[in-house]
Design brief:
This protein is mainly alpha-helical and 353 residues long. It has 2 domains: 89 residues, no CATH class; 248 residues, MetI-like (MetI-like fold, Orthogonal Bundle), CATH 1.10.3720.10. The longest helix has 38 residues. The two termini are 25 Å apart. Belongs to the binding-protein-dependent transport system permease family.
């Protein structure tokens, strides 16, 4: 019997076919998720009470002008046919033209999305750098003052409204103390002084050595990122504490202590390594939620991000912009989840098989 037949008989496949099968399964899952995301988003956009034709022609347009635009937009066709046409367009990167900005939606997304990416990335870093050690420390000192402080901080970060924290932060740190810059992404006299091929001002300014612009942009960024970071910190610290409490009660931790392992080794080399696998998923979900859920923060701080762009477009019945922005955010959410799954496999050797 050949090796292939033996593998088939035992129900096991060689590594290469197994990897190909896993890759094909992931691609099919991604394609189905993308189709489902675009279909749901498109249908919701069509059944909303906002009339996209009126957004184009205005309230005072004649019936003839209304009907002409109605036909040009293809709204007379069945909704499934409209969706297939829309799907074909977005597969080529064409989300249509924004009524609000009169520019292609793709161009608007490339302009606004880097601001949200910059904000969510720094907020997630704040949440990880502070939240993970705080959660570990709280679990190790369960029932002590640090544990109570961590739980109160987590409750406050989860319960306090984002818009209230944002206005309070502006009042204290910008209005009274003057420690940070105010709303907006950069002072107006620095706007356009540095080339921004990536759209991420901190990276572009550092790349060109424009450190004055870098620190000005950072001064604008730190307060909204801190507000979002408090939410990320609360969630990550709470989940880290929960995971660590579960691991510290396992028998292998007791065995490591009996063998004379140091407390640092027990906590970080044994317990935390098992927690890390779960934390990867938590961090990925947190990052994705900040990318899609920072609308209030962007509104309070006048931050020109994708959340504010989608919200403003929705109020103006600019459905091309709303659908385009929503699809892009959804794709990012799916992509981050897939990346988390990949990192999970690297962190846990058992998941590779």
């Amino acid at each position: 019997m050949t090796d292939t037949n033996s593998a088939a008989a035992t129900g096991k496949l060689p590594a290469a076919p197994r990897a190909l099968r896993a890759t094909a399964s992931a691609l099919v899952s991604l394609a189905l998720t993308f189709i489902g995301l675009t279909a749901i988003t498109f249908v919701i956009g069509r059944v909303m009470p906002a009339d996209p034709v009126l957004a184009v022609v205005g309230d005072r347009a004649s019936e003839e002008a209304y009907q002409r635009v109605f036909l040009e937009m293809g709204l007379d066709r069945p909704i499934w046919e409209q969706y297939l046409t829309y799907l074909g367009q977005i597969l080529t990167g064409d989300f249509g033209t924004s009524i609000m900005t009169t520019r292609p939606v793709t161009e608007d997304i490339l302009r606004f999305f880097p601001a949200t990416l910059e904000l969510a990335t720094l907020a997630t870093l704040i949440g990880c750098v502070i939240g993970i050690p705080l959660g570990v420390w709280a679990a190790v000192n369960q029932g002590r003052w640090i544990d109570h402080c961590a739980r109160v901080l987590g409750l406050a970060g989860y319960s306090a409204p984002v818009f209230w924290l944002g206005m309070l932060g502006l009042l204290i740190f910008y209005g009274n103390l003057g420690w940070v810059a105010g709303p907006g992404r950069i002072d107006i006299y620095y706007d356009g002084l540095v080339e921004d091929p990536t759209g991420v001002i901190l990276f572009d300014a550092a790349w060109h050595g424009e450190w004055e612009i870098f620190w000005n942009a950072f001064s604008h960024l730190i307060l909204p990122a801190g507000v979002l970071g408090l939410y990320a910190l609360a969630y990550i610290a709470r989940m880290t504490r929960s995971f660590m409490l579960d691991q510290l009660g396992q028998e292998y931790v007791l065995a490591a202590r009996i063998k004379g392992a140091s407390e640092f080794s027990v906590i970080w080399r044994h317990a935390f390594r098992n927690v890390l696998v779960q934390l990867i998923t938590i961090i990925g979900l947190t990052y994705a939620s900040l990318l899609e859920g920072s609308v209030l923060t962007e509104t309070v701080f006048a931050w020109p991000g994708i959340g504010q762009y989608i919200t403003t477009s929705l109020f103006n019945a600019d459905m091309n912009a709303v659908l385009g922005g929503t699809v892009v955010v959804g794709i990012c959410f799916v992509g981050i989840n897939m990346l988390s799954d990949l990192l999970y496999r690297f962190a846990d050797p058992r998941a590779r098989t």
